[in-house]
Amino acid sequence: MTRSHIPLTSTLLACLALSACAADKEPQGGPPAAAGAPSAKGSAAVQPFKDDTDVPLTRQLGQSELTQAIPDAPDVVPGYYRGSSHKSQPGKADDCAPLNGPAPSGWQRAGRGEYDFQGSTLSRGIRVNVCQFDNAQNAKAAYGLWPDKDEVTEVKGSSQVGEESIFLAHSGSGGSVAGYSRSGTVVVQIHVEDAGGDPKDAHDVLAATIKRLQQVQAGRRATATATEIAELERAR
Hints:
seven-stranded antiparallel sheet; 20% strand
């Protein structure tokens, strides 16, 4: 080795030593990535989000977020298409009021979706109403007032949706079924006409709506569908 190379070699050895020391101080595998953040190893894949209808909705969603969470026609029971006023405007306070009464205390915003059945000559459809309140206590109070229990029978057997839920079948009108669920600060109502008293479709659309709200709350796109919920129920 020539004399001129000695200073350069010493400098390189010092740099390598400093790098090794820094590596010793770094926790194994590097600092933990934030939940949902891309992997530090160069992969852009987002870590899986384990959503469940038992997880309460607590974050106040903006109107656009609430609208995004409302299922689109392919997200509900197969055979339906968008109704004439589907998501065309934000929900109103009346959508959250029981039996045409005043809006419940703490009402913040609402969203709605309407779906008509393809090829039906009857007034057959599905309606979704979503209401968010300022806190869980007001949402719980509204949930207790919302279900219309006149001329209906509670239908048992469906798994719970959200923190509490109920399904009611009307004796007339083709056995239409209404489903109600509360998750944290949100109350959701589903009304399925011509259901023959079967709560299955009401349950699946209700659970899909709650799950979509959770996905939006977590900063993800709303992708849950009633078909996915039905498959999960069959797998139980």
